[in-house]
Write a structure and sequence with these properties.
Layout (H helix, E strand, L loop, with lengths): L2 H11 L3 E3 L11 E3 L1 H20 L4 E4 L4 E2 L2 H6 L1 H4 L1 E6 L6 E3 H4 L9 H6 L16 E4 L3 E3 L9 H6 L1 E4 L4 H5 L2 H8 L5 E10 L14 E11 L4 H19 L7 E5 L11 E9 L2 E12 L1 H10 L5 E2 L6 E2 L2 E8 H12 E6 L2 E6 L10 E5 L5 H18 L2 E3 L5 H11 L3 E5 L1 H6 L1 E6 L5 E5 L4
Parallel strand pairs: 3-10, 20-21, 20-22
Antiparallel strand pairs: 1-2, 4-9, 5-6, 5-7, 8-9, 10-11, 11-17, 12-13, 13-14, 14-17, 15-16, 18-19, 22-23, 23-24
Helix pairs in contact: 2-12
The protein binds zinc ion.
Zinc ion binds next to loops.
Amino acid sequence: MNKLDDIVSLCKRRGFIFQGSDVYGGMAGTWDFGPLGTSLKKNIMDAWWKFFVEDRTDMYGLDAAIIMNPRTWVASGHTATFADPLVECKECKSRFRADKIADNINESVTTEEFHATHTKCPVCGKENWGPIRKFNMMFSTHVGAVLPGDDKEVSEKNIAYLRPETAQGIFVNYKNVLDTFYPNLPFGIAQQGKAFRNEISPRDFILRDRECSQMEIEYFVHPDTWEENFEKMRALSHEFLENILGLPKEEIHELEVPEADRAHYSKRTIDFMFDYPNGEEELMGLAYRTDFDLSNIARESGKSMEYRDKQTGETFIPHVIEPSIGVERLILAVISNAYTEDEINGEKRIVLKLSENLAPFKFCVSPLLKNKPELVSKAKEVYDILKKKYSHVTWDDSGNIGKRYRKQDEIGTPKCIVIDFDTLEDNTVTIRDRDTTEQTRVNIANL
Ligand SMILES: [Zn+2]
């Protein structure tokens, strides 16, 4: 097994991440977070929110609707251009993203260019391809009552999309925030939420899924200052990934995205790449979106998106710097960085070295023996004290103490606290450190 398989297996075994709709055989490109995965995800999202929103004075939070007026996606360009090059094998009818099965071509590949690569079908091995067709990745749905048999016009009028990015929820609320809070430039609007992409071939565990959570900021700046603000967001992104999440600096690589590969709205993009178990993959993006979105909204809606400088009276449409993170990608980076195999007294051990601020539980409390009522009741007492103080505390009295340590190591609990017979005498407990496995004796009052 490679490391990614080990991680997938651990995530399932310990209740971090399950295949979506597992009981029905799964649903491709969807994943469900179990009790521990939910905690980890929440801790990561809360850390981001605190760092980028709560601890700053230039950020505003937002929680916009997932289903938006379809004109949003006409204005944003998604209706026309949010598409992947789809190619079908005429022999076995399998469908693929052309740029993912052939080398040295990008998303704008033409039929001729693709055929010239002489790629063989990954399923049947033949080379008999249809034309490249553009496949729009937005999930569509109908809003309101649409019945089978309704004419085409009725059903088309009711079409809406699940948002393919959270960004547009921010852009359509830019004016609302401006008119209610009167912020000075530069200021940002931050949002966390679900986004949907109908990937042709979801793969690589939670790296490329059809439903994901995003954390995005649109940072509005004076056009003349975009470069310095781009640098500011670039530095903040590194600080968040490295200092707050503890991802190793040397495993994060910046990739200056060449013009041909950039999204249609971007004048400059840096992809932050991460060394995942199966190779380098995008972790987050930092894009300079110019005034593309606000200008499009102004055109489509007929409403002014201008900002008026309170001092100089200058009027203009702000430009935008966008740091954008997919939460699942970040979770996989955090887990694969934390995943460690070592040896303790000649025995192989799996340990998830999550930092204390991210671990689902900070402490595990247990009585040395579960059939000694005096130990159990003392341990309950300690558990209640810690639970009140730190909240992320778990209780474990299953199996023997060695098994408990193993389990807590695998789910990343930094400290295990054990109540034994000495505790009853002198009120001290054993604290066992996850990473070093060292044990120290501490008074309950000092926990
Ligand atoms: Zn085929």
